[in-house]
Amino acid sequence: MTAEDSAFAVLGMLGDPVRRQLYRHVAAAPGEVGRDAAAEAVGISRSLAAFHLDKLVEAGLLTVSFRRLSGRSGPGAGRPAKVYGRAEGEHTASVPPRSYDAVSRLLAEVVENAGLDRELHAAAKAAGAAHPDAVAGDLVEVLRARGYQPFWDGETLRLNNCPFHALAEEFPALICGMNLALIEGLATYQWSPAMEPCPGGCCVALSKNKSH
């Protein structure tokens, strides 16, 4: 099986609408999710949720581990439960095949070597500000639509996913700076974006300004 065939097989797992909902719920959660919580979120039985969750693990889309959900330990604490989290790998497929990732890496390398960080960040901020929903829309929904998977951590809005993960791994200063500038452009005066990495997620977190 070629890499392209494998990608299609993995993504085909998400053709089932229930399986797709389960994946979205687990992938967007800031921590691991148990079978009961996943079943309740999607509105299906625990046994059906377990079946689909394990299929997603087999496909490499989710990871599985075991822990006691009660928080207790020792005798009487019960057996550890299966919990699920988003897998680190990425899966893409296009028809016909494209190589946008190779071009992105090449462009990032050229920009970094040429010292054009400021120009890139300025362009990213302008692009964010030009988004049609940047001012009038709900920033949380704008970020969700862009794949950031936002969630509230107290009064801080954290981003559970980095849409530029692969590039950020290779060019952290360049891409994380671009990402911050982009979100600054998307955010209105009501928000204060800052570099505050979320474990396994995005390098930017946001807080609402006190007057709002």
TrEMBL record:
**Signal peptide boundaries:** none
One Pfam family name from the record? HTH_20
Q: What is this protein called?
A: Helix-turn-helix domain-containing protein
Domain of life of the native organism: Bacteria
Q: Which InterPro entries match?
A: ArsR-like_HTH, WH-like_DNA-bd_sf, WH_DNA-bd_sf
* Species lineage: Bacteria, Bacillati, Actinomycetota, Actinomycetes, Kitasatosporales
